[in-house]
Amino acid sequence: MTQFLASIGYEHWILHVLLLLPLLAIPLILVFPVHSARWIALTVALTELGLGLGLWWAFDSNNPGMQFVTDAAWLPQFGIGYRIGIDGISVLMVLLSVVMMPLVVWGSWRGIDQKQRGFYSLLLALKTGMLGVFISTDLFLFYTFWELLLIPMYFLIGIWGSSNRLYAATKFVIYTFVGSLLMLVAIVWMVWTVGKATGVYSFAYAHLLEHAESMAPWGGWLFVAFALAFAVKVPLFPFHTWLPDAHTEAPTAGSVDLAVILLKMGTYGFLRFAIPFFPAFALSKTTGLVMASLAVIGIVYAALVAMVQPDLKRLVAYSSVSHLGFVMLGIWGSTVESVQGAILVMVSHGLSTGALFFIIGMLYERRHTRKIADFGGLARVAPLMATAFTITAFSSIGLPGLNGFIGEFLVLIGSFGRYPWLVAAAATVVVFSAAYMLWSTQRVFFNRFTNPLNEGIGDLNFREIAVMAPLIIAMLWIGLYPKPLLHRTEAAARRYIELIQPHLPPASLPGISTSGMKP
Amino acid sequence: MGIDLATPGGATLALLPELLLTAWALVVLLVVAWRHRTAADTRFVGLLSLFGYLLAVVATGWLAWRGARADGLPQMIALDGFRFASDALLLWIGGAIAVLSLRWLERQGILAPEYYVLLMLATVGMMLLAGAADLITVFLGLEVMSISVYVLAGYDRTRRSSAEASLKYFLLGAFASGFLLYGIALIYGATGQFNFALIGAQLSATPPTLMAKFGMGLLLIGFGFKVAAVPFHAWAPDVYEGSPTPVTAFMASGVKAAAFLALARLLAEAFPAYVLLWRPIIAVLAVATILVGNLTALAQTSMKRMLAYSAVAHAGYLMLALWAHSDEGTAAVLVYLLAYSITTVAAFGILASIERAGARTVLLTDLEGLFSVRPFASLGLAVCMLSLLGFPGTFGFIGKWYLISATLGQGEAFLPIVAMIGSGISIGYYLPVILAMTLKPTRTRSAHTTIRFPIPAKIAVAICVAAILVFGLLPNIPLNFATQEAVHLRQTAMPTGPR
């Protein structure tokens, strides 16, 4: 496989094609008749999936650096380039994006019955933006993609969302736009500072990272500017309030894309930019404690809030905040295990939350409600759906043998040495998450069948099974045999830890080192 | 091509674009005297005026192509790439406004072809102002421009608000001229010179005097009025709202651009020695302008008023670029002005076309549901809003990034942060426009179906919107050009001494 990919020059064109194909397909959607829009989107999505899966083999797991690198001129006189490449951290994000894409199109197949052209065009534009964020290795390019993403998401929520969509769309854009403003100032400031120190003015990630020490005097300010942008996107407590609104009001495709990809951009940003550029400040004892505490507050608080939600989507949205807290904790745990765990949580949260949103969307298509109280005993009329939901709920709780467990376990183990008390507090959430997920599963699918309106609910049809099956298979696969995934992230995680090692304060419990420990 | 500005022939050659446009304006005036009754006449004169703009563009292009430079110090008028770039920008604005007015005047029942003559004369004034190398020319250009615009603002004379706009603009403009003239007199008293370069040489050779400081301060106040910088901005919303919409576009883009170009040249050539003195003033004005402009824009319901306050805020951003006082800063003034004026012309062009006959102004609620009826117009307006907001992918973002870069390049982080906070506030009034057009349902469907978007206006707006997007992704041409011309300007700014 690897040789075949090499023989077709895969590494030279794959990232460009992945990035630009969705964008180039938009004119086709606008030109062809309305009913072919979703077919075009599906074709593009499947092509992207096929091409993107090649990365699984073509990616060299032993190489910790950037691969498939392109460095072309864009505004050369200002050191701005079209620079792209992927490493062990971004490859999983890219894979996750391409895997979810056909599912998202499929999942919207029936739910979107008006303005299909616009919907699928925006979905494709969103995809280009997401991939752009994960593969940019030029800060100007990164910022451009980072902001451009807002437009398709804004319209996806604002046009196809549910009743309170205008409020949610506006809140989403204002939060994320305002959050990222200072990042632009920080980026330009970095370029000037490094430029004055080295004589080379460049927005290239590698160049800035190499001379990161010359930014040290302003590290605190610059870190805050970056961290604000990323924390809003994560969303880290207390910047999370936009998320439940956006999630709840967005159409299924929007919710899935938000949960699976958009939220990961924030944590990815911390791993890729905010910490490696300013490690001395970001990993200092105080900052670390603040960030890890916010993460743990988010984990526990959001789980508690999720318990009392009457709306299924809102419940899952709050569970997202809780899971993303684990990612943040893992990032600040700063061991190879915790970082790998964080990356794995990013992937598995994508799979389980994506699957949950799909099922909720399917329920909504049938009954036009998401209120838990409106359901009950659905397992009798829709056994397949109940099974799928239950498995997904278990995966979201973190039951051993399913995907959710591995990542969270690694995060807790890996962070324990640094933040024993916080980890202990975070671990309690396993109880809460079991409570809210199982309780809601019970109330929707297993209690007594009370509402006769639910009689007509059909079980999953073939298309819906096709959406759910890959997700459930992936959950089981990661849960039982995570090695191939961990293998791909390991070199990058190790390199990352080596990079920040000199700046790490000693852990609180040096005795408990987890190096060499593998589940 | 060296031109000796001291000879009549040389001066004529240097002023060729302005002279051609003036001459053509006089020719058109003759035509107007003879044909001024019907709508067809007005339209005919409008088309004639376009020819004048074309002539001036050709002349400017010819001078730029020949690489016209002054032998010795430029007197009266500058001869460098910066001036040709300014002229091209202003001529383009003037021409676009003429195109946008073609049908609009008819629709609003304003049948007076003199409008186009005034438009041309105002453009001549702007070109003189932006290209001035001498304080007397500054004043001359400013007055030619202002007096024409006073009249244009009141052109919808049967409407109360238009008359009010004209009067307000005139009174405040007269004040501004007074300050400016007094400032010129004091500078002359302190240095004995009118020429920018000679003033600069004189000021750097002698210790600062109170008279020169006062003169500079009064000049800054005069310009502050013209660019509507806080606290000299109070006239702007009323005047912008009351004037006929194409004239508002002309004021928001052309007048502002000309004043900023002149100010950039003045500060770079005449007052580099006093940089420590004027920098704090500019910084304070900029911060106040950005914050006040953006915050008050939030509260507006009328589109013209909202854009007026946003224009105030943009004057603040431009002042940051002036503050930088470097090659990059001067280039940033050019790039930002280009981005801003293209966007403003397009936005007002779309608004003018949406405006119904006899309507006072377009309210935000009038735009609701526009997308379903006029998708291209509303997409165009959305692009303009994103560009004004400074969203990546648009030319406005390039402008904003460049000016932030210029300010940071001087080691200043506070001012760009203020600029970004201003941007953060501004999403609160740009986003509702997009929201109203695309996401809200139409209130009165009939209201939008009566919209007539005339073809010439369509073309002008389409060119602008395309430029916003193309330069947003591929800004190499304007950026390189601006950088190069900024370097030229600042080379003339460093004379060895009085000659």
Helix-residue proportion of chain A: over 70%
Q: Radius of gyration of chain B, Cα only, in angstroms?
A: 22 Å
Mean pLDDT of chain B: 88
Radius of gyration of chain A: 22 Å
What's the oligomerization state?
heterodimer
Compute the separation of the termini of chain B in Å.
21 Å
Per DSSP, what share of the residues of chain A sits in E-state strands of 2 or more residues? under 5%
- What is the succession of H and E elements of chain A? HHHEEHHHHHHHHHHHHHHHHHHH
Cross-sheet strand order for the largest sheet of chain B: 1-2
Low-confidence stretches of chain B: 495-499
Which strand order does the major sheet of chain A show?
1-2
The mean pLDDT of chain A is 86
Main β-sheet description of chain A: 2 strands, antiparallel
**What characteristic shape of chain B results from the CA principal axes?**
globular
The percent range for strand residues of chain B is under 5%
Unreliable stretches of chain A (pLDDT < 50, length at least 5) are 511-519
Topology record:
The complex is a heterodimer of chains A (519) and B (499).
Chain A: H1 2-7, H2 10-31, H3 37-58, E1 67-75, E2 80-86, H4 88-107, H5 116-135, H6 139-148, H7 150-160, H8 165-198, H9 205-210, H10 219-233, H11 242-249, H12 252-277, H13 279-282, H14 285-307, H15 312-333, H16 336-367, H17 383-397, H18 403-416, H19 420-427, H20 429-446, H21 462-480, H22 483-500
Antiparallel strand pairs in A: 1-2
Helix pairs in contact in A: 2-3, 2-5, 3-4, 4-5, 4-12, 4-16, 4-21, 4-22, 5-6, 5-7, 5-12, 6-8, 7-8, 8-10, 8-11, 10-12, 11-12, 11-15, 12-15, 12-16, 14-15, 14-19, 14-20, 15-16, 15-18, 16-17, 16-18, 16-21, 16-22, 17-20, 17-21, 18-19, 18-21
Chain B: E1 2-3, H1 8-14, H2 16-34, H3 39-66, E2 69-70, H4 81-107, H5 114-131, H6 135-153, H7 160-191, H8 196-205, H9 210-227, H10 236-242, H11 245-269, H12 275-298, H13 303-324, H14 327-354, H15 370-373, H16 375-389, H17 395-409, H18 414-439, H19 445-449, H20 455-473, H21 476-492
Parallel strand pairs in B: 1-2
Helix pairs in contact in B: 2-3, 2-5, 3-4, 3-5, 4-5, 4-11, 4-14, 5-6, 5-11, 6-7, 6-11, 7-9, 7-10, 9-11, 10-11, 10-13, 11-13, 11-14, 12-13, 12-18, 13-14, 13-17, 13-18, 14-16, 14-17, 14-20, 14-21, 16-18, 16-20, 17-20
